[in-house]
Amino acid sequence: MTAHRSRLTPMIFKENKLKGAFIIELEPIEDNRGFFSRSFCKKEFALHGISMDIAQCNISYNKKRGTLRGMHYQTAPYEEAKLIRCIRGSIYDVIIDLRRDSPTYCQWVAVELSEVRHRMLYVPKGFAQGFLTLEDHTEVFYHMSEFYAPGYGRGVRWNDPTFGIHWPEEITIMSDQDKSFSDFIP
Questions:
Q1: Whole-number Å distance between alpha carbons of 86 and 133
Q2: Does 6 score more than 70 pLDDT?
Q3: Mean pLDDT of the residues in the chain
Q4: Which of 33, 47, 127, 134 has the most CB atoms around it within 10 Å of its CB?
């Protein structure tokens, strides 16, 4: 994983083993009021090869620890990049590279995001993404590069043997839709 400290803003970009996916660590500027930190700057992201126009923002509130949401993605022409931050509680966020021409095709990476760690996950187009809540009353904030297009939404199953994702805790709540995704065929 390579890390690059910004000269323009208090953000550190760390590319993980899945090319184009980044953990972005915020470096809050603190004083007696609390802290301030920039969480998105189009120029700063472009310096790291990330071009993202934000089409919409979403919040996911999750009542209980052990809630799994995912693994979701949209197909062309509505593939979406995501910038994810946990703003309350904590999550185990998993991304899977579904880009057929990628050297890391069908590989996955997990990142713990929490309100206290001040970091985000940038997920490029062509990835499936989902998370497991590690605390009750967890909120996740998403910046999305595309509008939601219901006819193009897809998913892969959380326990699909093609990927072999290791989840750190018991999954206790999941939608029927997320349970019903069929096996992925590479």
A1: 10
A2: no
A3: 93
A4: 127
| φ, ψ at 73 (rounded to 5°) | -160, 165
Which domains can be identified in the chain, with CATH numbers?
Answer: 2-27+38-180 (2.60.120.10)
Which candidate in 4, 72, 92, 166 is catalytic? 72
Q: Who contacts 61 (Cβ-Cβ below 8 Å, separation ≥6)? A: 137, 138, 139
Annotation marks residue 122 as catalytic? no
Q: In this structure, are residues 62 and 154 in contact, taking their beta carbons and an 8 Å threshold?
A: no
Cis peptide leading into 71, omega within 30 of 0?
yes
pLDDT tens-digit readout, 31-62: 899 888 888 888 889 989 999 999 999 999 99
Active site residue 73: no
Q: Which residues pair with 26 in a beta bridge?
A: 11
Query: pTM to 2 decimals?
Result: 0.91
> What number of helices (H) and strands (E) belong to the chain?
2, 14
What is the C-alpha to C-alpha distance for residues 163 and 130, in angstroms, rounded to an integer?
13
Q: Which two tokens stand for residue 93?
A: 């966020």
Tokens 């390579």, located at residue = 2
Distance CA 168, CA 3 (A): 26
